[in-house]
TrEMBL record, chains A, B:
UniProt record, GO biological process: negative regulation of DNA-templated transcription
Pfam families (UniProt xref): TetR_C_1
InterPro entries for the chain: Homeodomain-like_sf, HTH-type_TetR-like_transc_reg, HTH_TetR, Repressor_TetR_C, Tet_transcr_reg_TetR-rel_C_sf
Protein name, entry field: TetR family transcriptional regulator
GO function terms (MF aspect): DNA-binding transcription factor activity; transcription cis-regulatory region binding
Phylogenetic placement of the source organism: Bacteria, Bacillati, Actinomycetota, Actinomycetes, Kitasatosporales
DNA sequence: GCTTGCATCGATACGGCGTATTTGCCTGAT
DNA sequence: ATCAGGCAAATACGCCGTATCGATGCAAGC
C-alpha cells in the first residue's frame, strides 16, 4: 500500500503567489473603498495575508506603488471617435469618468512625473487620434486639455467630498454653509460674490465640466482653422 | 533706596507671543525651503521654540494649518488691468507666479475646499474685474480658467521637480531619460509619441502656459461676442 | 545521510508622525 | 498657608515607512 508523501493542506489552499499585480490590485481596492490615506504598506500587506516587508521584494518604495496605481488608471483612459475634436473631448470625458471610479486619482493626478507603460499608451492613442494636424498645434492642444482636466477633476472631487463630509445632499450643504456665507456677506466686503451666489447660475457638475472644455476646444478650433 | 522688584531676564528677551500668524509664518517658511513634507507640527513648533502641543491652542488640527497656508497664498493672487480678458489673464499669471514662489502650493491647490478670507477676497476681486458681463458667462469662464491654472501649474511644478531631482539642467535630464525613452521607442509601439519627441515642438514653460491660456480666453471671447 | 552554506521570509526595531493624556508648576483667591 | 484652577511641558499611544536581524528550510558537498 502506498503512502502519500506530500499531503496537501486542505483548509488553506495554496495562496496565489505574490506579485506586483496582486499588490497593485490590493492597493487600488483599498484606495477605492477607503481613500488614499487608507493605503499603507501595512494594510496592503494585511489584505494579501503577508507581512509588510514582503512587499519590498516587488516594489522598492511606497512612492513606486503610487506610481503604479496612477499608471493603472491611465489604462482606463482612451480617446474614442473620429476627428481631433472628438478625440480631445472623449479624452477629457474618459479621464473624468476614471476619476469618478477612483476618487483618489484626483489626489495624485498631475503630481507624479513618472511615465508608465499605460500612460505612454494613452499618450500614443491620443496623438494617433488627432490625425495629421500640425504638431505645433497638436502638442499645445493636448497639453491644454490635460491641464484643464486635471484642475477640473480635482476641483469637482474636492467639492464633492466637502458636500459629502457635511451632510449627504446639496440641500444639507446649503443649510450648513448658508449661515457662514450669510455672516460673511453681511460684512458687505464681497458684493460681487454675493450677487453671484444669489443671482448667478448654479450649473450641475456635468455642465460645468463640458462648458469649460468647450471653451478650450473652441479656442483650439479657431487656431486650427485660422 | 528702591529695589527693582522684577528683573528682566537679559539673555533671553521676552519671546514674541505665540499666535496663529506666527505659526502660519513658520509653516510657510518651512514649506518654502524644504517642501510640504517638511511641515510637521513638531518641526513648526521647534522653529518657534515651543513644544508641539502648544500649537493646539491656536489651530485645531494640521489640516487647518494647511488650509491657512493655502488661504495665505490667495492673498498674493489678484487680477490687474482693465477688461475681462486682462483680468482673467492676470489672474492666471499671478496664480502661476505665486506657485513659483511657493512650490508647495501646487501640491495643495484644487484639493482643499475651505474658503478662507483671502480666497474670498480673491474671488471678489476677480468678479469685480470682470465688468458687467452676463453672469451666465462670467461664472463658467472664471471656473474654466481656474481649472486650467490648477492643472497647468501642477504639471509644470511636477515636471520641474523631476528635472531637478535627476540632474540640474535640461541637458542632464535628457541624458538621464534619453536611454529609457530610446528603449521604449525601440519597441515600435509608440510611433506617434516618438515622432513628437523627435520632430515636435519643445516650447518653454512660459510659452506652454500662455498658449493654453489663450485657447481658453479665445473660446470665452467667442462665446461673449457670439 | 549528515552537515554546511545560503537564500528567503517573518519578526523586531527605529525614528518620525499627529494628537490624547497626564504631570507639574505658577498664580491668585480664600 | 492652603488650595484650586489654568496653562505649559512632558509623556504616551498608535500608526507610518523601512532597516536590520534572526530563524527556517532547502541545495550542494563530503
Amino acid at each position: 500500500m502506498l503512502v502519500w508523501e506530500r499531503e496537501e493542506p486542505p483548509s488553506r489552499p495554496v495562496p496565489a503567489p505574490l506579485s506586483r499585480e496582486r499588490i497593485l490590485g490590493a492597493a487600488i481596492g483599498l484606495a477605492d473603498v477607503d481613500g488614499l490615506e487608507a493605503v499603507s504598506l501595512r494594510k496592503v500587506a494585511a489584505v494579501l495575508g503577508v507581512g509588510p516587508m514582503r512587499l519590498y521584494g516587488y516594489i522598492a518604495t511606497k512612492e513606486e506603488l503610487l506610481d503604479l496605481m496612477v499608471d493603472a488608471v491611465h489604462a482606463e483612459i482612451r480617446p474614442v471617435g473620429d476627428g481631433w475634436r472628438e478625440a480631445l473631448h472623449s479624452l477629457a470625458e474618459t479621464t473624468r469618468q476614471a476619476a469618478h471610479r477612483h476618487e483618489w486619482f484626483a489626489d495624485l493626478i498631475g503630481g507624479r512625473p513618472r511615465l508608465g507603460p499605460h500612460a505612454l499608451a494613452r499618450g500614443e492613442a491620443v496623438l494617433a487620434a488627432m490625425g495629421d494636424i500640425d504638431l505645433d498645434i497638436v502638442v499645445p492642444a493636448v497639453d491644454a486639455v490635460d491641464a484643464y482636466v486635471i484642475g477640473a477633476v480635482r476641483r469637482e472631487i474636492t467639492e464633492w467630498r466637502a458636500e459629502r463630509a457635511t451632510g449627504m445632499d446639496k440641500r444639507q450643504w446649503q443649510a450648513t454653509f448658508g449661515p457662514y456665507l450669510e455672516r460673511v456677506f453681511a460684512t458687505g466686503r464681497f458684493p460681487a460674490l454675493e450677487s453671484v451666489v444669489r443671482d448667478g447660475p448654479h450649473p450641475d457638475p456635468d455642465e460645468t465640466f463640458r462648458t469649460g472644455l468647450d471653451f478650450i476646444l473652441d479656442g483650439i478650433e479657431a487656431r486650427i482653422s485660422n
